[in-house]
């Protein structure tokens, strides 16, 4: 199983970023996936998830209405569209396969 994030960067408040996660080594459509962030000095926070069976989604209250999680079954990617970014969105963002807890290496998002 391999998960590789991309798309992080340094942006100003109010800007947008789109994170992507490329998955390999498992049948992508069979698993629920999530994005988790780690901000400096704070606990990890699950910000969004997308489940199988109709693509039910979950968002943390802190990002609801600003972030959108989606998946492309071909070619095995899912995305986190982040709009209206705030300084408190700064952190390392990880894509996670919920079952068995596989994590990517993370991508840094800095809003300043």
Write a concise keyword list for the protein shown above:
about 110 residues; mainly beta; seven-stranded mixed beta sheet; 11 strands; globular
Please tell me about this protein's structure.
This protein is mainly β. It is built from no helices and 11 strands. It is globular. The N and C termini lie far apart (34 Å).
Query: What gap, in angstroms, lies between the N and C termini?
Result: 34 Å
Structural class: mainly beta
Total E-strand runs? 11
Number of helices: 0
Secondary-structure element series: EEEEEEEEEEE
Oligomer: single chain
Largest sheet: 7 strands, mixed
Q: What is the CA-based Rg, rounded?
A: 13 Å
Q: What level of helicity do the residues show?
A: under 10%
Low-confidence stretches at least 5 residues in length (pLDDT < 50)? none
Quickly describe the structure.
By secondary structure, the protein is an all-beta fold. The protein is built from no helices and 11 strands.
Question: Helix and strand layout, with pairings?
Answer:
Elements: E1 2-6, E2 9-11, E3 17-24, E4 33-38, E5 45-50, E6 57-59, E7 67-72, E8 77-82, E9 91-97, E10 102-103, E11 107-111
Parallel strand pairs: 2-11
Antiparallel strand pairs: 1-3, 3-8, 4-5, 4-9, 5-6, 7-8, 9-10, 9-11
């Amino acid at each position: 199983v391999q998960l590789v994030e991309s798309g992080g960067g340094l942006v100003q408040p109010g800007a947008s970023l789109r994170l992507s996660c490329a998955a390999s080594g498992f049948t992508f459509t069979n698993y629920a996936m999530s994005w988790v962030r780690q901000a400096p000095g704070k606990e990890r926070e699950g910000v969004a998830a997308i489940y199988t069976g109709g693509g039910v989604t979950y968002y943390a209250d802190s990002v609801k209405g600003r972030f959108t999680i989606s998946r492309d079954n071909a070619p095995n990617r899912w995305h986190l569209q982040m709009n209206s970014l705030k300084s408190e969105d700064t952190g390392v963002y990880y894509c996670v396969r919920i079952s068995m807890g596989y994590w990517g290496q993370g991508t840094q998002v800095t809003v300043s």
